[in-house]
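Checklist before submission:
- one chain only
- standard amino acids only
- sequence pasted in full

Submission:
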Amino acid sequence: MTFRVWKNLMLGPAAALLATLLFACSADQTTGASKIPTGVEDFGNGLYAFRYGSARSIFMVTDEGVIVTDPLNSKAAKLYRAAIAKLTDQPVKYVVYSHLHWDSIAGGQIFKDEGAEFIAQERCAQNFEVNPNPAIVKPDITFSHDYTVTLGGKSLDLAYFGPSNSECLIVMLPRPANILFIADLVNAPTADFPPDPTIPHIKPYNIVEFFQATEKFAADNGVKNIVGSSVKFNKSDDGSLVPQTGLGPVSIVTDQRIFWDSLIKTVLKANDDGFVAYTSFVMADKIDLTPFTKYDGYNEDDLAVIMRRIVSYAATGR
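Returned file contents:
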């Protein structure tokens, strides 16, 4: 049973969250690692992406070792390591966490065992201390605003622009490939409607500023393309799902910023105009929803839940 079906059967954001958890647990218990489709994408200049089901993580191959990002989970990490071994016999020297969510960064012990150093933004490291998980390898190296990993004539620039998707998500720029990587928030080929309408990971108070800073970072560095962490699929003639390329134009960053900026402004104006009930329900029939319908994955019921969350943030602060 899909998340959409669960959500339609069980009304309300709490029920939707429960459905998400049930679906995730079911998938983990019934699907072996060997049954989850995997693959490697080659973006050139030593930059690759490892796909595990609907998740994507980038890695860089150099003459002196490999830089890995987001191990995903313990099952995925074993397949990830095997995929790297098919391309090079160089060891994994560094593992970089894009943010702090367990479904992206667990399972890195296999890389730690071969001597890799782990890198994370300092707020991630603080979270690991107060919210520990034995499946998360704690970082050896932390940084505040920016950091560059250099290895074998290549580098991975890491930039932090404040809370966005979690407290510590970073933007990554591998060189010389010069293709931006942002986990969760931006995915090719088009800007997205949030897949989880409860948006527990989004920090509305800084999300627009995050995108503005990312746009400037991309422009300053002449970035033309972006890779996202979520795999999108096409359906083939026989009904099977075929993964789309993770590569898209960097203009998606701007499109996604416009979505969040428009959404927040629309909700705040509705609140000021008295179109929000005391329970935080936004009176959707009183406002224009057209600007949001063009986003991939749009769902009007989900939009109502997202708007309620924005109202709550506006009322309670961070």
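Reviewer check: The domain at 31-316 is CATH 3.60.15.10 (Metallo-beta-lactamase; Chain A).
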